[in-house]
Write a structure and sequence with these properties.
Urease, subunit C, domain 1, 476 residues, 18 helices, binds zinc ion, alpha/beta, four-stranded parallel sheet, single chain
C-alpha cells in the first residue's frame, strides 16, 4: 500500500461539521485513506519523510475536499455549443438532445467520457453523479474508471413515447431511447447495477438511473426507487425541470411533479432529483420528510431559462433541511463542467434576486459542492470532507495565483474570486491524478484530438440542423 505525505499546507478548508479551517497543516494518507491530520510541526515529529512513497509540498497552497458534481451527463460532452441558445427545457430535450444522444455511438461515447473526466479533474471535481450511458453502463463504468475519477453512473432509461412521433425523430432514435414498458426498462437497470456496481475497488458505482418526467411512466419512477432500495444503491432523474413540465403535470394528473412522485410512492432517501425548479411551498415538506435529495444546476438554469431565481425555492429547501447539492449538467445544457462557476452563481443568485444578503453564504455554497454532494451520492461516509478516516479525495490550489493575491477570508475568496484553473494538484482515492496541472492518468493531447474528431462526426450523424424547431408541443 502506497503512502503519501502532504506537508506544510498553508490553509485547509476541511468542510467538517463545524467548517474548521486549519493553518500550517500536514496530512498523512495510507493507501486511499486519510490517516492523520495535524499541525505541520507535530506531524513532522511523528513521521519520517523518507518513509513516504510520495510527498506533496503544500506550502503556498490551500487544500480542500475534491468537488462533487451531483448531476452530470458524461455522454453529452462532445456537444458543446451545438444547439441554439434560444430554447427552453422541453424543446431542448425533445427536439435537440434526443436526436443528439441517439447519435453518440459506442466509439464516440468513451471519448466523450474521457474528455469530460479530463475537464473535471482539471477544474477540481473528483466525483460525479452521471445520468448514464446511452447504450451500455459498462462503457461509462470502464471509461470513467480508467481516468482515475470517482463517480456514479448507470444506464439511461425511458418508457413513454409521445402520442405522435415528430418528423425529426428517426426510427433508430426511437428504438434507441425507449423500452417497451417499465418492466423491460427495470430489468435492464437491474442487470447493469448487478454487473457494474462497485467497479474499480468501489471507486465507480452503478445506480438505477432513469430519464424522468414525461418520457417515464409512474411505474418506472416508482420502480426505479424500489429497485435502487432493493439493490442498496440510488436512483436519479430529472423532475420539475421547468414550469411547462409542472403545468403539464397539473393538467394531466391534477398535481405538480413532486406531489405526484409522493402520491405514487417514488420519493425516498436514495433518490436524487435533478433541477426541481418548479416546486410549491408544501412540496418542500414532502422532500424533507422523505429525505429526498435535490441537485441544483445553476448553469443550466441560466442557459435554458428555467427560472431558478424567479420561481426556484432552493433557499427555502435549504431552510427546511433538504440536501441540495450542485451539478454542472451536460455540456449542451450548461456549457461547462466547472463546479467553481456553480458555487459562484449559487452564492450570489438568491442574494440578488431576493435582495437578501443572508441567503446562501459562501460557506454554504462550498458545502453544497462538497459534503452535500457526497450526501446526495450516498457517499458521505467516505468522501466530501477532509477528515481522518475518509478517503483521500483532495484538491490543492496555488495561492500564488492572481485570484489569491492578496486575500483575507479563504472561504469567501474561494467562492467569489478563485478560478478553477487555480487547482494545481488533485488526489483521488489516495492517487495523485494531477500534479502541477499535469493529469497523470490520461494523455491530454490524445483525448482532445479524439474528442474534436468524434464531436464533428457525432454532430453530423445526429442530423441536427436549423430546420429542427426550437419550440415543442410533444407530450402536451
Ligand atoms: Zn440533466
Amino acid at each position: 500500500m502506497e503512502n503519501l505525505l502532504i506537508k506544510d499546507v498553508d490553509i485547509v478548508i476541511t468542510v467538517d461539521s463545524s467548517d474548521s479551517v486549519l493553518e500550517d497543516t500536514s496530512i498523512v494518507v495510507e493507501g486511499s485513506t486519510i490517516e492523520d491530520i495535524g499541525p505541520a510541526d507535530e506531524i513532522g515529529e511523528k513521521y519520517r519523510e523518507p518513509d513516504f512513497d510520495r510527498v506533496l509540498d503544500g506550502s503556498g497552497m490551500l487544500l480542500m475536499p475534491g468537488l462533487v458534481d451531483s448531476h452530470f451527463h458524461l455522454s453529452e460532452h462532445l456537444s458543446r455549443g451545438l444547439f441554439p441558445d434560444n430554447m427552453s427545457t422541453r424543446p431542448w430535450v425533445f427536439n435537440w438532445a434526443k436526436p443528439y444522444y441517439a447519435s453518440v455511438d459506442e466509439v464516440a461515447e468513451p471519448w466523450s467520457i474521457r474528455m469530460a473526466c479530463l475537464e473535471m479533474i482539471k477544474t477540481g471535481t473528483t466525483c460525479f453523479l452521471d445520468m448514464g450511458s446511452q447504450t451500455d453502463a459498462g462503457i461509462s463504468v470502464k471509461a470513467a474508471a480508467e481516468t482515475g475519477m470517482r463517480g456514479v453512473t448507470g444506464r439511461h432509461a425511458a418508457d413513454v413515447m409521445p402520442d405522435e412521433i415528430p418528423p425529426y425523430w428517426s426510427e433508430e432514435m426511437v428504438d434507441h431511447h425507449f423500452f417497451d414498458d417499465a418492466d423491460e426498462a427495470l430489468a435492464a437497470l437491474r442487470e447493469s447495477v448487478e454487473e457494474w456496481n462497485n467497479y474499480a475497488d468501489g471507486r465507480i458505482r452503478c445506480w438505477a438511473n432513469i430519464e424522468g418526467k414525461e418520457p417515464c411512466s409512474a411505474e418506472l419512477h416508482r420502480g426505479a426507487s424500489e429497485l435502487a432500495e432493493e439493490l442498496g444503491v440510488g436512483t436519479t432523474y430529472h423532475i420539475a425541470s421547468s414550469i411547462e413540465e409542472a403545468e403539464g403535470s397539473q393538467e394531466k394528473y391534477g398535481k405538480w411533479p413532486v406531489s405526484r412522485l409522493a402520491d405514487i410512492d417514488a420519493l425516498g432517501p436514495n433518490v436524487v432529483l435533478a433541477h426541481v425548479v418548479a416546486l410549491k411551498d408544501h412540496e418542500i415538506d414532502l422532500l424533507a420528510k422523505h429525505d429526498t435529495k435535490v441537485a441544483f444546476n445553476p448553469g443550466t438554469s441560466f442557459k435554458l431559462a428555467k427560472g431558478a431565481a424567479n420561481i426556484g425555492k432552493y433557499p427555502e429547501m435549504l431552510d427546511a433541511g433538504v440536501t441540495v447539492s450542485l451539478g454542472c449538467d451536460g455540456n449542451s445544457a450548461a456549457g461547462s463542467a466547472d463546479m467553481f462557476k456553480q458555487m459562484y452563481i449559487t452564492a450570489g443568485l438568491f442574494k440578488d434576486a431576493r435582495m437578501d444578503p443572508e441567503l446562501v453564504p459562501a460557506r454554504k455554497a462550498v458545502r453544497m459542492a462538497t459534503i452535500d454532494g457526497a450526501r446526495s451520492l450516498l457517499w458521505d461516509d467516505e468522501i466530501g470532507s477532509v477528515e481522518v478516516g475518509k478517503r483521500a479525495d483532495l484538491i490543492m490550489l496555488d495561492l500564488d495565483e492572481l485570484e489569491w493575491t492578496p486575500f483575507h477570508r479563504p472561504v469567501q475568496t474561494l467562492v467569489y474570486s478563485a478560478n478553477s484553473h487555480n487547482v494545481h494538484h488533485s488526489v483521488i482515492d489516495g492517487d495523485i491524478v494531477m500534479e502541477d496541472r499535469e493529469v497523470t492518468t490520461m494523455d491530454e493531447a490524445e483525448i482532445k484530438e479524439q474528442a474534436r474528431k468524434h464531436a464533428i462526426r457525432t454532430a453530423e450523424n445526429s442530423g441536427l440542423s436549423d430546420e429542427v424547431p426550437t419550440t415543442t408541443t410533444l407530450y402536451d
